[in-house]
């Protein structure tokens, strides 16, 4: 790892915020609880949408109904995960930033983000045609599979941050 990167991570840990996260009695555990609840909302909602997109569950429920009901939950989860994750990172930046799992987690988050953009700005624009189809068109099914695999991979890589 380049020396400047290690120095930047150490500097981040020494900020007042990083010090607080690391030393305040309940800061890290509370942030971790918020992170886990956010993951449940984000990934749970996303996987339910993904299963519908892949035609594996809820085949009798229109896609627009599924997305209208679950995407707001995903948005709340994402906000909770992003804020709590950044705050936790400030306290243990070197441990996380130097972990072999970090590039995997960040790369899979990026892949999920690109997939979301492709889905919403491309594939989903024609949803009126296939909204009630038990098995959506192939691009929608692929998008659901990529999303499910990405978010499951993010969870696995996130757990590995503490071990590799």
General form = elongated
Quaternary structure: single chain
Structural class: mainly alpha
Fraction in beta strands: under 5%
Mean pLDDT: 97
How many helices? The count is: 8
> What are the secondary-structure elements, in order, as H or E?
HHHHHHHH
Radius of gyration: 18 Å
Give start-end ranges of low-pLDDT stretches.
Answer: none
- Give the beta-strand count: 0
Count of distinct structural domains: 1
Distance from N terminus to C terminus (CA atoms, Å) equals 15 Å
- Biggest sheet: strands, sense, closure? none
Helix share, percent? over 70%
Organism: Donghicola mangrovi
Pfam families: DUF6644
InterPro entries: DUF6644 (IPR046586)
Protein name: DUF6644 domain-containing protein
Question: Can you describe what's shown?
Answer:
The chain has 164 residues and is an all-alpha fold. The chain has one domain (3-160). The chain has helices at residues 3-13, 16-23, 27-53, 63-91, 93-97, 102-121, 127-130, 138-160. The two termini are 15 Å apart. The model has no long low-confidence stretch (mean pLDDT 97).
Topology:
Elements: H1 3-13, H2 16-23, H3 27-53, H4 63-91, H5 93-97, H6 102-121, H7 127-130, H8 138-160
Helix pairs in contact: 2-4, 3-4, 3-8, 6-8
Protein name: DUF6644 domain-containing protein
Domain DUF6644: 32-163
Pfam family, one: DUF6644
């Amino acid at each position: 790892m380049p020396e400047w990167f290690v120095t930047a991570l150490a500097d981040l840990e020494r900020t007042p915020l990083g010090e607080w996260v690391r030393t305040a009695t309940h800061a890290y555990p509370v942030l971790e609880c918020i992170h886990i609840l956010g993951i449940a909302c984000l990934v749970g909602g996303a996987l339910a949408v993904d299963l519908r997109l892949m035609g594996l569950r809820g085949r009798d429920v229109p896609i627009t109904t599924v997305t209208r009901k679950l995407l707001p939950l995903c948005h709340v989860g994402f906000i909770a995960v992003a804020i709590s994750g950044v705050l936790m990172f400030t306290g243990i930046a070197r441990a996380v930033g130097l972990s072999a799992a970090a590039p995997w987690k960040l790369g899979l988050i990026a892949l999920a983000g690109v997939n979301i953009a492709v889905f919403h700005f491309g594939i989903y624009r024609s949803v009126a045609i296939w909204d009630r189809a038990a098995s959506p068109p192939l691009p929608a099914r692929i998008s659901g599979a990529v999303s499910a695999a990405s978010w499951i991979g993010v969870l696995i890589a996130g757990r590995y941050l503490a071990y590799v």
